[in-house]
Amino acid sequence: MSLPDPVAEGVASGWRVLDGAAQTQDLQLTCDVLIIGTGAGGGMTAEVLAQAGLDVLMVEEGALRTSRDFRLLEAKAYPELYQESASRKTADKAINILQGRTVGGSTTVNWTSAFRTPPDTLNWWGERYGLKGLNPPAMAPWFDMAEARLGIADWQTDPNPNNSVLERGCQALGLKHGRIRRNVRGCWNLGYCGMGCATNAKQSMLVTTIPGALQHKAGLLSRARVERLLPAADGKSLLGAEGRLLAADGHSLNGRQFSIKARHVVLAAGAIGSPAILLRSELGGGQVGKRTFLHPVVISGAVMPQRIEPYNGAPQTVYSDHFMHTQPLDGPLGYKLEVPPVHPLLMGVTLSGFGQETTSLMQQLPHLNVMLALLRDGFHPDSQGGQVRLRKDGSPELDYPLNDVLWDGVRRSWLTMAELQFAAGARQVLVLHEQASLQSSWQATREQIMQLPLKPLLARVVSAHVMGGVAMSSQPEQGVVDEYGRHWQLRNLSVIDGSVFPTSIGANPQLSIYAFALRAAHQLRDALKA
Amino acid sequence: MITRRQLIKTGMAGSVVLLAAGFLAAPQPDLPTASQDHHVFLQAGDEQIIRSLAPVMLGMAGLPLPDIVRGVDVAIRNLLPAVQQELRQLFDLLGNRWGRRWLAGVHGPWVQATPDDLAAFLRRWQQSPLLLLRSGYQALHALINAAWFGNPASWAALGYQQPQQVMGLLP
Fold first, then answer.
1. Which chain B residue lies closest to A389 (C-alpha atoms)?
2. Which of A296, A470, A523, B37 could form a disulfide with A499 if both were Cys (CB 3.0 to 4.6 A apart)?
3. Residue A286 — pLDDT band, cuts 50, 70, 90?
4. pTM above 0.70?
5. CA B89 from chain center: how many Å?
6. What is the 3-state composition of chain A as percent helix, strand, coil, each rounded to the nearest 5?
7. B82 in contact with A at a CB cutoff of 8 Å?
């Protein structure tokens, strides 16, 4: 007996699915709505519009991988499912970015953490950017709808030992903490969400809205990279988009091109991809690609006396927002505490140091706890995020300078995590920095942290949340799109993905993108059906 | 690709390094060691650099070096062309006898370098004041670690295994 693969069954039953790599001719297609990207924004939008009877075509740069391809194997999953084999980096290489590149986008590989957009973030957007329509009461029904669609609910199972360390530490220090809601149905509690869900329990776009759209006659073209949008002669609208089909390796070109005519175009290629497509189309304008945010993440590891097996069990079930609310939103950077799943390849690549000491720490993997602090960027006046730009070959690169306001948050969050880990009974703690070493007491760790030079590529900084770069605004000159993602200048272009956020979210962003997308997609549906 | 901002950041010393690298790259390679394997990205000289560095980077002897070299090659193959180009520059620099001598500080050919020489090189680049050299170290670190820990042969020593209750149900 082997596990079912309903998506593969759907494809076999005749869904309208085209693999770019298999094409021997150039493609010329037409549709009502072209959706570029199949992640949280594109997936949600596709289902809403297809259910309304519109002719929807989804185009995805990554391949269509389904649960039969998900083997709980990092060396297979990262090249197949992630941008740049899970090693996408900012321009100076200082931040490693985890981002999906497959049908379902990052939702196929994320760790299932579901948080509503924090009310203080929504209120800030209203006050600062005039986005009054996105206030918490107005957004509540959209969160409800997304949660119902994706089975988002309290996770009743006990946290795994890795998450329990964070909970025990918070209890010991009297810090506010809580349990994370997850988008799963019938989860096996394996802990391999980042390699694609082999049991189809994770309610990613791959198993929910994309099948929903395909059942309503939508089409899907995978391994197809949109090069540019095609402006109409009047300069006020688009004719569609064109691009190149990729070969079976998912990277090289197969020599064939595609061109798609559409009544309406939805850009949903994520906060690096969407700005890149606009820039390649010379539709940049002043704001495109600017103020791109990452929730920069720093890491602390601990050797625990008991077995942790951080590679087993639901990856993220406990969090603490204590340090998000201890100072003003635009003051020193707040941070959210979580723990990640820990598997050998990503751990080996991420751990600082080299040689015997590092290896002996790796060999204590079953006893390791790893903690993360996600820094809330984009609110402090000195936290302006980064800028997406194009390399000579047209591929996008995010330049994200690390500055003092960020380093201050890095040091404070290391101190917090180390203190928490010792409070939870850690034997030794190591913050991930090339000059840090394992310490056996909170006192010694604190002294070490205060001494560490804060420089790129000494401190380990990572990110799994790319946001912003095509910001919503209440006035055309202040952003790129309105609060429904409608482009201010081009009448038949919407941007519906994580790139529209004017700051970082301050929580794992998937549910924010789902709710925003549902709201935008319903508005678009009504406009197109009128 | 080195951007203007990186040039400014790395400052004068960095520019000298880069000029030297551009000036020195290609001529005067170390003699390659004969290899049984054919790789897509890695050339014979690159392969020797990985073989020499891996045991020091990973702090262990008895590694299956051909597998690690193959793993590095596969990892690089799945990167963007622009990133592959940067890695090409890195390996050309390290494989060039002047680059090896003056930038890596490794006096003899890679195949003859002692573990102490290799560790000193890694430490120097890991802690370098030049961002560019730190990023060179990080690239080597990531590639070698990915190649080894992505290989199931490394797991037993970590006490790691995949969840047995599901592995038997996979297609």
1. B3
2. A470
3. confident
4. yes
5. 11
6. 35, 25, 40
7. yes
